[in-house]
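Checklist before submission:
- one chain only
- standard amino acids only
- sequence pasted in full

Submission:
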Amino acid sequence: MQEIACAYGRAVKLEAAFGFDVKVVPEGEIFLVAETPELFGIEINGKLIEQKDCGYYRDKSFRKLDITGLLTEGRNTVTLKTLFSQSPETYDNISKAGGFESYRNKLSYDMEIDAVYILGNFGVELKGETSELPREALRFSGTFSITAPPEKLTVGELVTQKLPFFNGRLRYRKRINLSAGEIKNRHIEFARRPDTVTRVYANGKFAGEILWRPYRVSLDGLLIEGENIIEIETVGTLRNLLGPFHLKEEAYGLGPPTFMHISNIWRKGLNPNWDDAYVFLKTGLFFK
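Returned file contents:
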């Protein structure tokens, strides 16, 4: 949409509508997260919202707008309306960027049409087909619905546990009863790294942190006879929030062309690796 609008070389009226389904309206605060929201008139289900800035999410350019009470069960729509335009210099760079790498490398936009996000205490229900991909990834083809958050998490990946777009900090907790003969020479070992950073606690005391192989943490001196509480905290990346989502397989190298289906500037046409299904990175707990 942005590339088409820029190709006119002048200001154009632009309207971008994003639809999503709500099965259960989330409890508590709900925010719309958008970049440069002040450049747009933003409507939720056809109602123009008052843009009260509530700080940022993940990055200072991702601004939070309070939309508590505006979502309803069923189909919802976020609509951004603006007079879309660039500076004369930017239009000139755009016209040359398709043929000259030097212009493409310095290309930046005065206005952009970016993804928007719904932030709150909820889960996302998947309805469709999920399949395994190389590089610890999953492909999902189907629909998403906002629903109640999961009450419990089990061992395994999080995508199919109502957390496909989750990108924050999780703490798993389990109570284990041990006899006097079971508390020595114990450790926790993972089949692979659960997330970017993984921390293990035993009875409230820090046991260790996993960043690389071996994926093992010793529990020596931290366990007691009787009930023990083991906690595992994982800290993730923004991969399952920002993507890229629509590739045939998980990508190791990223750039502007990775996120585009078609572009005359960045791709010289269609992206041969594009897939309409979603690709997620598998995160969660994976024990041996």
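Reviewer check: The chain has a mean pLDDT of 94.
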